[in-house]
Amino acid sequence: MSTISPRVKAGYSVGHVLNDLCAAMWFSYLLVYFHQILMLDADTAGYLLLIGQLTDGFATPFVGIESDRVGLLGKIYGRRKSWHLFGTICVILSFIFIFTPVPKYIPDVTPDWVALVYYTPFIVIFQIGWASTQVSHLSVIPNLTPVARERTQLNSFRYGGTVLSSIAVYGIAFAFLQSSDSDDLGWNDRFIFNKLAIIVICTGSFFSFLFHLFVPEETELGPLGTIANVNYDEDDDNEENRGHIENEGTPLLTESNEETIKKWTEWFKLPNFYLTGLIYMSSRLIVNMSQVYMPFYLTDSLGVQKTMIAIVPLIVFISGFVMSMSVPILNKYINNNVIYIIGTVLCISGFIWARDLATPIGAVDPSRRYEIIGVAIMNGAGCAAVLISSLSLTAFLIGDNCSTSAFVYGAMSLTDKIANGIAVVIIQNEDPCSCNCEDCGKFFREVLTIGVSAICAVASLAVVAHYFLFVRQPRQQTGYERIDD
């Protein structure tokens, strides 16, 4: 039995592609572009990324609250989709300029503050748009279906779109880098990233159009934000199926199953809101820190040629795509908490392997060169499992409280963006030098392996606590339905 049609599932799956394409460039190549193409110092590059992360972080709760309350186009268009459209336009108008050099810019001659002033407005507009699209797209899920497994399936399809988008970015980047004359990144490669940004915007705009075409906001919200309109086959309208929907959609919030979240401020009274926020923040730190510092690990710690900054992320996301398609199958037998733990174990194992591979620094043993593929596979599968599970745990938290779902996703994203921005600035400030020396190689090896592994450990503990406090306890004691077992 399915409450949503294949057409809507397909449309929803591609609704975040523009954001995903841009995010692949943002996290993988922004610091590389600023640091190794424009030759900005590490601090300036880090501050530009921080500006973006903070803008995104503070925009998401605002967008969440407003999109729960009102649509930008009144009643002529859906609330969620109107914010999605606004975000799409902002991204289209700003992203290309982020990967376009400042007019008359000369590396090591033009002052860094000129780049800081020039790029900041484009980054702010881009991140406001990115946040609007992300929150509105996520908040559609609870409105489309009350069934937990279908929500997990939509998250998996969404992540599948993320992975395919990233594969496309890295595949095109590899083709461009392969055609370059030099094995090292430099000023002459600036046009590669500009052309890649143009392709990203054109492709993403097309898929955003498909989302708006195929996913109408048909589901209406009841007086307290519960799902009032669920479409499923009348032939399946028997007691077993009705019970399945009721169990899968039960509010997962308070000690009384009759209590419902009416205002966004009421979320702050719930312990699970904070624990889920910690899990989501840790998940994004694992994924984003791996993505941001993998190119530096490859070039500085391993000393491989520049085409590897496209090949390795490509393998990471191919393995992530395979995992994203496997999660709905695994979810039939084990819950999202267990899948999350499996993901962190895969990530930590891959980072241990990566640390061993980068010893000694700067000259990986030719006989072990292809082991980086194994590291990439483990990292991709682990990050996919972690991210999909964290989104499903967020949907678990929301339950039927769809009227405030956008705020919840916005609040989760706030913790994610601030944490990522601060982490990058701290790391950039600790960068020992601006060259590709052995000290840099050791530094980025520690960041990617020890640093991210520590985040994995913290996230695993939070997920274990979530399971025993909010999932495993009997219903009469906690009021939580075990919807994802």
From TrEMBL:
InterPro entries: MFS_2 (IPR039672), MFS_trans_sf (IPR036259). The chain crosses the membrane at residues 21-39, 45-63, 83-102, 122-145, 157-176, 196-215, 273-296, 308-330, 337-354, 374-399, 406-427, 447-470. It comes from the Eukaryota. Keywords: Membrane, Transmembrane, Transmembrane helix. It holds the Pfam family MFS_2. Belongs to the major facilitator superfamily. This is Oidioi.mRNA.OKI2018_I69.PAR.g8659.t1.cds. It comes from Oikopleura dioica (Tunicate).
